[in-house]
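Predict the holo structure. Ligand: calcium ion.
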Amino acid sequence: MMDHKETDISGTPVLPDQGRRNFLETTAKATLAGAGLAMGLAACKSDKPAATAPAKAAEGDGARAVAPGEFDVHPGKLDSYYIFSSAGHNGEVRIYGLPSGRTLKRIPVFNLDPMVGWGITNESKKIMGTKPDGTLKYTTGDTHHVHGSYTDGTYDSKYLWTNDKLNGRIARIRMDRMECDAITEIPNVQGFHGIFPDKRDPVDSNINHTTRVFCGAEFHSPQPNDGRDVNDPTKWFALFTCVDAESMDVRWQVKVDGNMDLVATSYDGKLAATNQYNTENGYLLADMMSAERDACVFFNIERVEAAIKAGKSFTIGDSKVPVVDGTHAANQDPKTALTCYVPVPKNPHGVNLSPDGKYFVCSGKLSPTATVIATELVHKWFAGELKDPRDAVVAEPEIGLGPLHTAFDGRGNAYTSLFLDSQIVKWNVEKAIAQYKGDKSVQPVVDRIDVHYQPGHTYASMGETKEADGKFLNAGNKFSKDRFLPVGPLHVETEQLIDITGDKMRLIHDHTAYPEPHDAIIVRADVVKTKQVSDMNDFPNAVKSMDDNRVERHGNKVFVYMTSQAPNYGLAEIKVKHGDEVTITVTNHDKVEDLTHGFGIEKYNVNFIINPQETHSVTFKADKPGAFWIYCTHFCHALHLEMRSRFIVEK
Ligand code: K7E
Ligand code: CUA
Ligand code: CA
């Protein structure tokens, strides 16, 4: 649309982004070369499928351009999809609407959030975890992946899970409220990266919903990590973990050779897969890249659990979690093996399952390929009917430079993000299989589109379910550079929405994201069911009646019970003594949807909200005498400014 114009519709100069893309590609390669990757990339370069690939897509191609307004969501109209997105080292989970790209919510999880009061209220601190002195154990986190619970192979709108790569924790979000309700710290792991719920019970196939969540660990660490072996990384190893979807308890772990990056699960519940980039067990970058091939490891879940039942497990340090041995050495016989290591080209990244459940695709990263592994053949290997795990590979098309993650449209096409090429490449899985079988006339790559710039994850609407609908694809780009107004050194990131309904991909628009999202899922709006007004009875500490407004003293502990109802707090004044430990519990009696109140105390660092019919509490020390206003921080009423109470701390 803007191809031959120097200004866009508003008269703003348009930058020649194709050149920019090439520039970035060069710098990215130079940077990697500087890190010792020159060899690998030189190989990539010579293997570049340019000769066989169709001409590069020009984003501005007039014939395919998105018409102005084609995907607009007009004021008052609702989006047709939700995106549930990770937020990276911001530690939260975010919700956007599609196709508008509008931000709908930020759900604090591993981070502090004074708007909500996350990490401030007693209820949220209990979920986040505290030290013996009552302060938070961790206040940071790094979310990379968000996945939803499944029933019958598609989202059931019950739970979301996300990982904390930084402190080895898994969090659950209940989707009726879109709030975090549980966080579990996983023992003896570091670099907890990939996460994926199962979709069916591996033993009882009548249980056709999520019961377990699998967690990979990217970094090797001493086992246990109590000061032993700190100077001998050759003794370190990594554990694959299963967490119970309901109780959020850690069920079991598997010791592996190598490491675990991303995770995917089969629809029959029997297999979990994880890609490994460090089969070398290296602890220096050069060592992690020394082997020509790494692996995609498959876990036979039923056998792992049978081995634990049979008592073939051990424990590590203080952890009571049973651990079984999934290393090569302990799993030589396929018929009893817990793990199957399928070799793939060196240092792969994401692993994703096709919506028909037939293929796991490992993206090459350092190799310009994607590796297609047939689910059925992995089962065959475990049955002793396939000699070499590598024989489970049914295709390995060359698709471009720096493949990271793959999404699917449910029509047999895969879409892989190419970090170095700054593109999304569309390729056909069956064509790739035919080519691998020797048919030289087929070309698996069917389309490419430039994205801006350096994409990490790409994901499609309902793409990780049996209901993949092939409508939208999002490219989460790591560099935005010239796509938005500059705002100082830190750029916002670009999420680019792409129409994948036709043969050719079409860029719909850029939306911004505060750094830095990794993976996300796109869920049809009608699937998601939330509740806008809570039930007061769900809060055990609710101050249920206006008559219950009171201050109780037990020694130097003071308990304040109060209500809020626009535009009043139940107590106009709260009196305590200097040095008291004060617990204030507030119940919002307003029943009207969207009528949230805030609760802030001047100079006391207290700030949280109470949604309709909810109850929250805070505990703190009255460590300075004086009079301090409590005020409502959340706009609720014409008399919102007058909604106040006095907190009196007597000398
Ligand atoms: Cu590729 Cu952590 Cu899913 Cu980032 S990971 S992009
Ligand atoms: Cu209550 Cu503002
Ligand atoms: Ca490697």
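The helical segments are 17-47, 122-128, 285-288, 301-309, 375-382, 429-436. The radius of gyration is 27 Å.
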